[in-house]
Amino acid sequence: MAVHGETNGGHVSQDRVERDAPRVVLVTGASRFLGGYLTMRLAQNPSIERVIAVDEVAPSKDMIRRMGRAEFVRADIRNPLIGKVIRNAGVDTVVHASLISRPPSGGGRTVMKDLNVLGAMQLFAVCQKSPTVRHVVLRSSTAVYGCSAKDPAQFTEEMGARSRPKGGFARDAIETEGYARGLGRRRPDIDVTILRNAPMIGPRLNGAVSRYLTSPVTPSILGRDARMQLLHEEDALSALERATLSGPAGTFNIAADGIIMLSQAIRRAGRVELPVPSALFRTTGRAVMGSLMRSFSTEQIDYFNFGCGVDTTRMKNDLSFTPRWTTVQAFDDFVRGVALTPVIRREWVDAVESRLTAVLGGVPPRGPVELAAGTGRK
Length: 378
What we know:
- The chain is an alpha/beta fold.
- The chain has helices spanning 33-43, 61-66, 81-89, 109-129, 168-186, 208-212, 233-246, 262-268, 281-289, 291-294, 298-306, 313-317, 327-338, 346-360, and strands at 24-28, 50-55, 71-74, 93-96, 135-141, 191-197, 200-201, 217-221, 227-228, 231-232, 250-254, 260-261, 272-276, 307-308.
- Strand 5, helix 5 (168-186) and strand 6 (191-197) form a beta-alpha-beta unit.
């Protein structure tokens, strides 16, 4: 049980009453990365009696094997059946990790909103009626802050988007967070923890940033250089596990330390940057990236234009979580993990950046740098 004293950002300003460790946990989105691997970790925790994984799509055979003793229930959270599952199992902790950022195969924006918003409404309504549920964790996104030229260097949890987000996923996340906070107000005995994840990257996760930087020639917007703050896939998973096991009520930005400029990311991935005017970005992107460009939503294009930075003080102090990887380290692990074939050799990029850092810092470089692409010699 928690004593709530929330601001709009969901911060708990009063002393919090500690609750017991979860006994029966239900995780939605079990066929996707975060939901599936969280289920696997929770099933390996001997202090948890039961772990129930739910999704309308069955996980892969490999993921089912990894889930071990966890029970998989094939169900749509928009269906009243989810209420029966929660009641019969005596679920005390619900982790909602099934928000989708793109329409499902064969579906459009209407289907996506139906799954995201109506699904959350139904799930939280069931939680409100359940006498056993006492903790709800929602995996949200920093997409709620939008991306625009008016943005501050860092968003805190109390801030909102400076311009109304254009993308459907951001609007769905904002609505879903609203329903989660409403649950906390109507049932003050239920702790509601909201995690706003920065864009995730890693060798196993095929996210927007990963897809964008797999193209040998990567278009960028002329005159812009997005400031990207990322989150390693393993840190995203660890933060979600932390929130599930002992997270306090409130809203938390989850992101790695530091930023990486888009131009720097393109170089470190060994891609060739092609700056183009904003009006020609999609057209040029389709010409050089093919169908890959069509997979990006409006909000993802805005992210490649402006980027987004968030303050993580509350994550470290209140959630007691510090990511293992910085933004640059997370990005480099992605590049190594997927074994991108560089168009421009990494050694040459490192040599140039080392020399520039030395010159700008007034420190003589360690040795001569040969500026010939592909030589990789210092």
